[in-house]
Amino acid sequence: MIVKNQEYQKSVFLSSSNSIVSEMYGWSNSVVEFFKLSAANDNLSEENTALKNQIITLQNKLATLQPEASDSVHFQIPPEMEYKFISAKVINSSTNKLQNYITLNKGSKDGIKIDMGVVSEVGVVGIVKTVSNRFSVVIPLLNPKIQVSCKFKRNNYSGPLLWSGEDYRYSNLTDIARHVELFLGDTLITSGLTSTFPEGIPIGYIEDFNINKSDSYYNIKVKLAVNFRTLSHVKVINYLNYNEQKDIEKIVEE
Questions:
Q1: 8 with 15: CB under 8 angstroms?
Q2: What's the rounded Cα separation, in Å, for the pair 217 and 175?
Q3: CA-to-CA distance for 209 and 205, rounded, in angstroms?
Q4: What is the rounded CA–CA span in Å between residue 125 and residue 184?
Q5: Sign of torsion over alpha carbons 109, 111, 113, 115
Q6: Are residues 68 and 89 in contact, defined by beta-carbon separation less than 8 angstroms?
Q7: Contacts for 84 with CB less than 8 Å, ≥ 6 apart
Q8: Top-confidence residue, 212 or 138
Q9: What is the pLDDT of residues 16-70, one digit of tens each?
């Protein structure tokens, strides 16, 4: 009755009501934008993967261009560099177990196969272990079941990276002889000595190292490039010559 019959009280009431409604609309829009953000990130990941594939294709085409000189040699794409990326989203993962796993929302119908390498925008994630029609499970670097061959970007000395099961931020590099010169912050990249990862993908950086007088090899602590606690989107590496390489290596082994 007071609001209805008094002009001043009515104006105050309407002003307050409009303020509350506006704030509620603001909250509503924030909630809607939050849920839209996930879809936007998925779209950006797909677009980024498509752009990376285009870059690889262009680089390979440039490498195969025939020089104009008649006595020049025709360049060919190195077979180990023929690969494509498949984008995927992390839908389940762990970092606090001895044997951690990551589940992706892509499977065999999307072209994913066992033993494919998995990377993020900043570095190596792991290797595909199991695949179904619509999902795949990855063994990440945070699992002692896998070793990834890596090397120092500065001097090309290589060795296997193996997780000790302690801290999700760090791993250990082994088999680096004491005569190798090391520096804190040295960059580690994939060596290219396996068919899982091409050469040059970042793995991590030397956080600390030491060696006992009686030891032949360093104890090297590596800070991983990927933060597995915030990992949301990845790219699966489809190495196009994987089967051919494995077949010829199998013949030699037999």
A1: no
A2: 6
A3: 11
A4: 22
A5: negative
A6: no
A7: 53, 56, 237, 238, 240
A8: 138
A9: 555 555 566 566 556 555 555 555 566 666 667 666 666 666 666 565 555 544 4
Condensed to tens digits (0 to 9), the pLDDT of residues 180-216 reads 999 999 999 999 988 899 999 999 999 999 998 889 9
The 3-state DSSP composition of the chain as helix, strand, coil percent (nearest 5) reads 30, 30, 40
| Token reading at 39 | 């879809």
Q: What is the DSSP letter of 163?
A: -
Max CA-CA distance within the chain?
Answer: 100
| Domain range 148-224, its CATH number among 2.40.10.350, 2.60.40.1180, 3.30.420.40, 1.10.510.10 | 2.40.10.350
- Residue keyed to tokens 């998995």: 118
CATH 3.50.50.60 fits 82-143+231-243, yes or no: no
